[in-house]
Amino acid sequence: MIPQAMPAAEPANTVLSVRNLSIDARGADGKPIHLVQDVSFDVFEHEVLGIVGESGSGKSLTMLAVLGLLGPGLKIVSGSIVLRGQELTSMAFADLQKVRGKAVSIIFQDPLTTLNPVLRIGEQIAEAIRLHNPNKSKAEVKARVIELLSLVGIPNPERRFSQFPNEFSGGMRQRVVIAMAMANEPDLLIADEPTTALDVTIQAQVMQVLAEVRARTGAAMVLITHDLGLVSEYADRLAVMYSGRIVEQAPGEELFSDAKHPYTAGLIASLPQIDHKVASLYSIPGFVPDPRKRPSGCPFHPRCAIGRDRPECSATDPALREITPVRDVACHFYEETPAWLGQQRQISAIPADAPEATKDDTEVVLKVSHLEKVFNIGGAAFRSHKLHALRDISFDLRSGKTLGIVGESGCGKSTLARVLLRLADASGGDVFLNGAPFFQLKGNALRQRRRDLQVVFQDPYSSLDPRMKIHDVIAEPMRIAGSYSAERVTQLLAHVGLPPEAGQRRSPEFSGGQRQRIAIARSLALNPDVLILDEAVSALDVSIQAQVINLLMKLQKEMGLTYVFISHDLSVVRHISDEVMVMYLGRVIEQGATEDVFDCPSHPYTRALLAAIPQIGGKSDTEGMIAKGDLPNPMNPPSGCTFRTRCPMAQPLCAEKEPPLVDHGHPGHEAACHFAQA
Fold first, then answer.
1. What SS3 string covers 278-325?
2. Measured between alpha carbons, how far is 380 from 386 in angstroms, rounded to an integer?
3. Domain locations in the chain as residue ranges
4. Structure pTM?
5. Is 317 within 8 Å of 300 (Cβ atoms)?
6. Which long-range contacts (CB under 8 A, 24 or more apart) does 440-448 make?
7. Can you name the CATH fold of 364-671?
8. Are 330 and 248 in contact (CB under 8 A)?
9. Cβ within 8 Å of residue 343, ≥6 positions away
10. What digits encode the pLDDT tens for the residues 556-604?
11. Which of 70-84, 100-114, 631-645 has the highest mean pLDDT?
């Protein structure tokens, strides 16, 4: 059934009005593939519309159509896009160029790919100004660029004007992209996953900058994201997309407190709890359907806890209809959703059983002692500068346990993983794997021992060779080790929830979550003792993330695996870890049992990380606790406590002496702070 057309919005305060937009691609057989179907929504002055949904739901594609940036082979087949009274679908290309960057601008996910690495920052922002203001003088353009850099909170804008993108941190680069997007004070700003690649503290800073800039310019915004906490805090209204359709629209607070569509409820139920650990996360079964093979009826019904076995859901596609003056939903049985979500919330409110106390004689699988890593960075006149990437890192990881490692980008998490894997040489310290010294091994002895230590990387798309069949991808380490078994490959696929026939397909045929399952299967091929998971779920949607986390915990229980879990998502770390290590500028500044660190954080930096996590249900009251600014230059760190330049508790003593890592509160709960809270 085709959804009914929404009535046109009142033009007085409407910035963008999209009506019954449909976008098709042409398949290999010449038949159209319906990517976006009859999407309708409005964006009003001064408001933020959040668009959420899993990858492949059509969020970004819809907004690219608004900008006239659809790729080759994609076509708007029906519908209307009106921006401030102008119909964009029939606008000539030359006229559309005048609109982009002037009336509407976009902030993309990755600032590294948005900015040209060989052009200075000032030149790139100036280009956006000159394109729409050709009569401005060079001095006027430069003055406007410096004003914009100051507006988005970049210090020393006059000096930064002449620097290149590689001289900026990730958060600062995203601020530059915001300055570029706001250069001509557009009526509408489209932010497409603007903080996905950023740490929670930098994410909070960037969103604050966006709010301040919008307040000064009056711009409306469309925020595209899969981070439900983020839209809960910053969006006024929400549109939930699934399989190319909007399935629910509502004011943000109302949607989160009383979700009506089962898909919306499933996304909310999939979120890990930051205040306690649960035995198992809820995850929506299955995956977003391929647009070429959509199920009959409601496209969500095969995954739906309410309509999975109901004939109405498999036979008829429900129209998006108004159920209150401010709410629309596309579901036959939406009245049943609140009760189902209430049950899931009751389940998630029950903490998991407390872990059994670890005995002192439990086997230590991985022992790290006073680990150091120093990089020699070349400087002017051949002088070498030392970058202390790791400083005095020590921990014991016991069999069957998970150590979570958290901290902002640049704190040394991934460097630690590389050193543990011997992909980079340590500058000092020792690592013992199953009681044997690991750093002293060479040649064949090292190759043999490396089987016990495997890794799963962040990006499932670049981890797998697209030319190889999945069977061969998983079998490759076994063939190298001389232990290939086709039966073992099939067994590994079964362990990660994939059928045997998946081995005959190639990685481009799988979704991101399925690819990460394959990467996990490959890492298990040689029966390792320790898995290092480096941001292994951060690139996944919330429901798929829940599936992979549940899988990791199931495998750990069944196979006795030991994990080093590196992540900047503290909610996930809370759920999966037994112990937590917080790093800052290459040093451990707090570590202990997960419950101790999360429930009673001793270090101001740990409290800042926790305060920066977006929360479902609106803004938290912890804004003053969030760390300000970026990480200091690691080649020229502050004296004394390296966190003092961002710490709200800093005292003169902090600049004079670096605090030692000592017990605070419970035994084994250590913090490196002169004024740590017990």
1. CCCCCCCCCCCCCHHHCCCCCCCHHHCCCCCCCHHHHHCCCCCEEEEC
2. 13
3. 104-185, 262-348, 364-671
4. 0.86
5. no
6. 446/422
7. Rossmann fold (3.40.50)
8. yes
9. none
10. 999 999 999 998 888 899 999 999 999 999 999 999 999 999 999 999 9
11. 70-84
